[in-house]
Amino acid sequence: MLPGMIPNEAELTAGVKIEAGRQYGFFTDTTLCIGCKACEVACKEWNSLPADHLTLTGMSYDNTGALSSNTWRHVAFIEKVRSDGADGAMVLPPFQSHWKMMSDVCKHCDNAPCQEACPTGALFRTEFDTVVVQQDICNGCGYCVPACPFGVIDLNELDGKAHKCTLCYDRLKSGLEPACAKSCPTDSIQFGELSDLHRRARARVQSLHEQGAGDAYLYGAPGGPGATGNLGHLHAFFLLTEQPEVYNLPSAPSRGADRVLPSLLAGLATAVLLTGAAFGFLLAV
Amino acid sequence: MARQSGRIIIVQEGRFLLEDDAGSHRLFLTSHSLNFNPEDLRALARGQQRITVQYSEPEDLVAGLAESIELAQPSNGNSANPRHGLGATLRGFLRDWSLPRQAVGQSDRSDAAKSTESHQLKARLAEADQVGTSICAYCAVGCAQLVYARNGKVIHVEGDPRSPINQGTLCPKGAATFDLLNSPLRLNSVLYRAPGSDHWERKPLDWAMDRIARLVKRTRDETFVQKLPNGSAVNHTLGIGSLGGATLDNEENYLIKKLFGGGLGMVAIENQARVCHSASVPSLGATYGRGAATLAQWDLANSDCVVVMGSNMAENHPIAFRFVVKAKQRGATVIHVDPRFTRTSALADIYAPIRTGTDIAFLGGIIHYLLENDLWFKDYALNFTNISTIIDHRFKDADQLDGLFSGWNEEKHAYQYDSWQYEGEAVPSSLAEHSVNTAESFSEKTKRMEKGPPPRDPTLQHPNCVYHIMRRHYARYTPEMVERVTGCPKEIFVKIAEALARNSGRDRTGAFCYAVAWTHHTTGVQIIRTAGIIQGLLGNTGRPGGGILALRGHCSIQGSTDVPTLYNMLPTYLPQPQAYKSHEAFADYLKAETTPTGWWHNFPKYAVSLLKAWYGEHATRANDWGYEWVPKIVGDHSQLPMTLAMRDGVLRGMFFLGQNPVIGGSNSRLIERGLAKLEWMVVRDITETETAGFWRSGQLVRKGELKPEDIRTEVFLMPGSLAGEKGGTFTNTHRLIQWHDKVGEAPGDSRSELWFIYHLGRRLRTLYADSTDAKDLPLQNLTWDYPLSDEKGEPDAEAVLKEMNGYTVADRKQIASFQKLKDDGSTASGAWLYCGIFPDDSTNKARSRKPDGPDGPGTHLEWAFAWPANRRNMYNRASADQEGRPWSERKKLMWWDEARGQWDGYDSLDFEPNKAPDYEPDWSQEPQGMDALDGKSAFIMIADGRASLFVPSGLKDGPLPTHYEPVESPVRNQLYGQQDNPVAKKWEAADNRYHAVGDPKFPYALTTYRLTEHHSGGTPTRSVPVTAELQPEGFAEIPPELARELAIENLDWVVISTARGEIETRALVTERLRPFMIAGRKLYQVGMLWHYGWSGYATGDIANALTAVVGEPNTSIHENKSLTCNLRKGRLDGRPQTAPVEHAHRLDVVIG
Known about the structure:
The complex is a heterodimer. By secondary structure, chain A is of the alpha+beta class. Chain A has helices at residues 9-13, 38-47, 113-117, 144-147, 169-173, 179-183, 194-211, 260-284; strands at 24-29, 74-79, 99-104, 123-125, 131-133, 154-156, 161-163, 189-193, 217-219, 236-240. In chain A, a hairpin with a 5-residue loop joins β4 (123-125) and β5. Chain B is an alpha/beta fold. Chain B is built from 33 helices and 42 strands. In chain B, strands 9, 10, 11, 12, 13, 23, 24 and 25 form an eight-stranded mixed beta sheet that branches. In chain B, α11 runs antiparallel to α15, α11 runs parallel beside α18 and α22 (639-647) packs across α24 (668-677). The longest helix of chain B has 19 residues, at 205-223. Chain B is globular, with a radius of gyration of 30 Å. The interface between A and B is large, with 91 and 118 residues.
């Protein structure tokens, strides 16, 4: 028996002290992922999210399908075992290959389009620089849903509110690593201070290149693919070995707000033209 | 709209978990019109307020939608109030609304947008008032968990970051532990099914206990046999059996064997270990001395080459695989050999596809490659193995006899082992079956081992030394032959052999990891033996990062093997007395089972101490310590024959203690027919298993073959408890014995097995108290006085563990080491091998939780306790060379300190602490026991101290592993005329037919396995929503080429059939399976999941309806990894492809 929870447990599990005012995030290294879905379960266990859609999808071992209001971690499975030829893979590059597995999650964008779209202030940026829907404010208007370039945030029709990964906001406040990252058996999901994770991730890419896994690259790290369209960097970023689309990630996601000005201008221009035309018509008459 | 009353345990966002008055749990989402907000719900939880929830059940969701909540009692003002009035809501909204604050220029990255809820938020763990240390109740990796409770209710379970095994992590099953404890399908009261009834009835626990005790007495009295017709005493009953133990605590297993075996005289006592890893015991035992994993899981991180074969490690032991990934990150080569490309293959450097059941051909090929290319580690093998030992000149090899060895008796279908012995002397086996089926002079011949060292030729010139016998035996296992038999391209095979050789030697080590894909074969023991030979040749065993890791399935399956709920052993590897061996009197038993040389010379001390622990003051020298009360076995009483004994009406009453044979047993329909013949059965589990409900929803009832009214079996379904709800120990896959705390209460009438067995025993002792019949003496004389630890009458598990450890009889002091046990009745020890775990009255080493720091040696000697004597890497004498020096600085573990005259190192030494490397026995004194072993005898349980590359005694199917095809195979054996294992146990009958070789009606190879998302038979994951949804339906994996041939599309329904039965399932067409070219023809393999059934949230047909009752000769383990089948598109009974999947049934609907 212990007297209580281990203080600052994240120091033991992730080697990081969690403090307000710093930036935290996830680095998901798919080359270490064994597709066990511990992250999906740990997330549901911690957040009391219900199981749903208990049917076989036939999409490899993925019966989750997508992120949703009830599912905040989703492991995608992509089989490419015999794409190299009839004999298939036998001598393999180091770490994960040929059966790609990747645990997807909310990206907690630096410029979060969902937050920008939220009219109530329910979506806010926490003291850990993560993006959270505050359930006591959300009125379920759903504006955030189409704003997300990754299709992450989802409205639950049953409770009428928007839900997504909170990066375990409550756990961070109590010095605990987020549930998914803590549970991950092979440390494919790593939690930490963003700058630290960036350093770690770049070193990992370099090491993989040296070992012969030349396809490895970062998605969502500053300046790289995924961190496009004025989203800034992604607080949940990934090491991938295939094109983003293979994992159902957009190759160049962008911020809805950036499309507002041009479309606003275009709309205004149309209005002006139409008005002009109308006047012209009236004058002609 | 449904209603449920109870208390809120957890609130997360707007969702909450309700515990009802009977201890059952349900998760709720809150409707947007609910009259309580999350803050209020939290207050209700804090105040432990009883509420009634009105809810609907949305489709496709395992949760309720709460529409309204009523307080059961009026609010006392301190607890929750319903949703605040309009004014308060408006004030709250204005306070929380961020726009005004942002309008005055506060950044969106400030606290400006933070709501009240966000301000107050903290992790619920911070509110825990009790944090227990526990061990995961799923597999045998032994992950440590922390169980958090508030007000006596468990609120969360997660990984213990201090554990050197899981370091805070958990796999999908372990991560679901909280949901397992709180599964909506968990039982909370006794359910009873009267003979012929079609429904369950709820019954009081006390009533059930009384009725069960009376039934046990009736059946025992009707079936008890004191003497066989030939006059030899057996004192047993064959009429009652018990299955289960691997999911239970060691203490529970101990009491089951003690009461059922030592008290009641039952012999048919078995558990999942029989059908899981029983093959590991004789294989590793005969090779190295002890039948268990040689190294700790965390030590894999120190390996330079990890071969995963016979295992899908990343899926089935994800946390153990953590250390393979760590090794890879340090530069190791990771190899996976498997019929399917799995989640393990995806992380490998080399993946070798092989046809199922051809492992010995592959591994034998490696032995051939190492010997012929001179790649073996000579200093190690010459000193520490029997490679130079000379074998009897009459020995003839399978190479000469077309697949048979000398000594074959065609009539008896068995071998005589005389010609397999060392030249001039017989070698007793290190297994618990020392003298089985051998020449009569055997025990006299073994005495010659005291007269001198075994005949050896260190120059390896003698044609009959093991080295040359092996070279001849494996001569035909060339890379070309490997390709022809296994289907693996020879280039890939050679790459693997070279990687292994390159990563072994003074400076490098490699490890093998295997699981049930090696054990589930009629050649299972010999497959594992082959790896044992390779590791002996390469010098990997006993060294850091080297050895063989048996990956076992259940949380205490190692424990239920050690403290065996198995028919053929008494606690910790003492043989169960056998009526047809020379075991008549205690003196005969000791004479037959005590080896003249090596550690097993201590056998009498352990046997007497066990009898003292069981029968206390009633065990005296005058009555041979009560030896006669221990029931004698008369044959094979293991699980497969038990299923036949049920069918044949020999077994009349059965206990199923956390085991579900309708899913996990072979030929599932035959098992159901057996259940229907029982007079009574007791199922103890956490939910209604397919075994418990066979009479209302079983395969035969659903097919109309049986009707509930015709089934006379009286059934008791009793709710069990789980780790976290009871205290006790599990033994993990690397022999680590870890305690788990009791934190919360199990729901309703759920009780531990310790409670059940103790109170059943108490009631039976009362029923038999006045008997004067000699047959009842064992029960009357059993020591059965355990202190109770709570008001429910739960026995104190630590008291049981203390008895297992051992104590002095005179003053009842705990004993610190098995070296202190005596054969004069002055010591008692219920499980000698566990001695040291409770060395004094207040020290329970299974509870110790001190990992080595990052700079420590990494053996973690103060994290729990490992048998034997806390050794983490067994045979670690071999980590130093013949002169006692570490083989290299990099692979340093133990070494001889000449100056101090003792061994030193980082592990607990598996040798005599003061025996110098150059010690030689004084043969003129005819030394016995350890005195007869020299300073290089790293394998002390073996009679000559050397790892047995060649096994002279103890194995029924040969001294060297030989490739035989599975009993059902699509092809002929290409290596020998002998098709399959000549000694395989076959029980062919009308309801258990086998397919002939190459039978065109069953053209495909079939293999069965499980997924990481489900555990064993699936009971503890199919009943848990969050794991069930990950793999919600059964399916078969089919290679695309075969799917095209049969016009099967992905997700189509298909029918798989064998001579035993047919099932329907969905098709998953995948490139991960591939065709093989074998003997000039294209051969397909079909993969089928075996962990589905029709209870729980994830469902599917039972794969074991297809499998046969056929057994491995040494252990009677089944062959479910390799059989043949037919496959077609379609469904059973003419159902259309589009018919909906049947939904899981819920108990509450059917209780009458």
